[in-house]
Amino acid sequence: MERLDKSLLFRLLIIFVVLLIGTNTLNYLLFSNNSDQLIEEEPRTIIRYEQRDQELDEEAQIFFEALDRITSNYFYSVETEILIEGAIRGMIDIIDDPQVRFYDPAELEEFLLDTRGSYGGVGIRIIEAGDDIIVFEAFPDSPAERSGIIAGDRILEADGQTLEGEGLDRAVELLRGPSDTTVDVKIRRPGSEDSLEMTVRREEIQITTVTSERLDEEVGYIAITNFDSNTAGEFLDRLEQFEQEGLEKGLILDLRNNPGGLVDQVVKIAREIVPEGEIVRLVGRDGEVRTVHSSTAPRKPYPIVVLINEESASSSELLAGAMQDRDAALLVGQTTYGKASVQQLEELSGENAIMLTVANYFTPSGHNIDKHGITPDYEVEMPDILHYYRYFHPGRLELNDYGTDVEMLQEMLAQLGYDVENSGYFDDNTAQALTDFQVDAGISPSGEFDDLTWVELREALDVASREQDEQLNYGMELLEDPEAWNDHGGTE
């Protein structure tokens, strides 16, 4: 077998990755699972590297020796490409930073797609329950909704290929596709054993990250679920409409359960609602201030309350922190997640990429959010079940079942006012409480938890979560309490 000393390409690639840590300017920012990456408003560039010094070359020699021995002498054949990717992933494991990761070409394509704010598909969010793929929700006015697909539907097949046991990635692969193409799906509706077949035409699905409503004639409510490439535009349009109609009592900005996203979108929003001055600063590993983002906006003439919780992270923390530090709002809820490190996407050969943490963000007052979070001005707790009920789908539960799924079901029923003991054991009392709920919901009172009961239970908790939203209710009280805004810069 040929020796690897002629494989200069591989040698340079590994040195390239070793030299990535703590280098270069920032170029491109995306988000995924509580991670932000910086985007400066300039064209995307590819960062290239050159070998820096002989010392690093000598330190890396042991890697090349090990790679050479494995490919030359190991009994079993191993592809060099696999070994190199494994080495990169191993370096990332050693760094022990949950925000640092490696993307192969398929993973990178999916990651980039998530930040566009749109994709070709049918317009549903799906979850995996056991071996089955279940519709979590059908987006309003989507091809799926117009075709009659509803929450709780089990997707059995897509284009003739079974989805049972194939996992979410395979389901997404089959359901997504270019606009103006079709996909044939077979589904089973909650409460029915029969299957339905339909053809759904794919469209470009615009992901909505901003929702709004009037809580009363003088109070506006805007919720941001995450920050993608369309978020700032959506927010500013809704805010402008509210301001034209009047916000005499004020605005509630809901950043709860917002994991973050694109920092440039946060800056665009902050430049509208944070009064003139600093919004956020970017600080490198040596303590140098790399970038300061500022606002020139006048102070809003109405009070603003920002809702936060322990799932508010990253970009949402930057916005909440700027509002708090600049006396632009009062914060209500619970201490945030505490993630304000900045990730940079570095391109590697072969359409691979690596994500690196390169800096931290600080609030205008110099507060380092990372690993600390933001403490609200008014701490108000919410029942845990009202945070997590929408993620609950265990499949079928019945008499004598036991475990955390049963415990969550009991907590949900208790939250809705049914008499049930939170024991984690599906006993006769639990079956009776569930039967009572099914009767009230107008479905067959089986005393067992199934897909149809899941749909009705989730809808009931949607209503309860708004009625029993103590954080939102407290925010409303603050807007109507002039004394809360004394010595505060929230109004003029």
Description of the molecule:
- This protein is α+β, with helices and mostly antiparallel strands and 492 residues long.
- The chain folds into 4 domains: 110 residues, no CATH class; 89 residues, Pdz3 Domain; 156 residues, 2-enoyl-CoA Hydratase, Chain A, domain 1, CATH 3.90.226; 83 residues, Muramoyl-pentapeptide Carboxypeptidase, domain 1, CATH 1.10.101.
- 34% of the residues lie in helices and 22% in strands.
- It contains 15 helices and 20 strands.
- Strands 1, 2, 14, 15, 18 and 19 form a 6-stranded mixed sheet that branches.
- The radius of gyration is 26 Å and the shape is globular.
Quick description:
The chain folds into four domains: 4-113, no CATH class; 118-206, Pdz3 Domain (Roll); 210-342 and 360-382, 2-enoyl-CoA Hydratase, Chain A, domain 1 (Alpha-Beta Complex); 385-467, PGBD-like superfamily/PGBD (Muramoyl-pentapeptide Carboxypeptidase, domain 1, Orthogonal Bundle). Helices cover 34% and strands 22% of the residues. The protein contains 15 helices and 20 strands.
Shape: globular
CATH architectural group of the largest domain:
Alpha-Beta Complex
Low-confidence stretches: 1-52
Q: Report the strand count.
A: 20
Number of domains: 4
- The level 1 CATH classification of the largest domain is Alpha Beta
Q: Proportion of β residues?
A: 15-25%
Q: What structural class is derived from the secondary structure elements?
A: alpha+beta
Give the N-terminus to C-terminus distance in angstroms.
78 Å
Question: What Rg do the Cα atoms give?
Answer: 26 Å
Mean pLDDT: 84
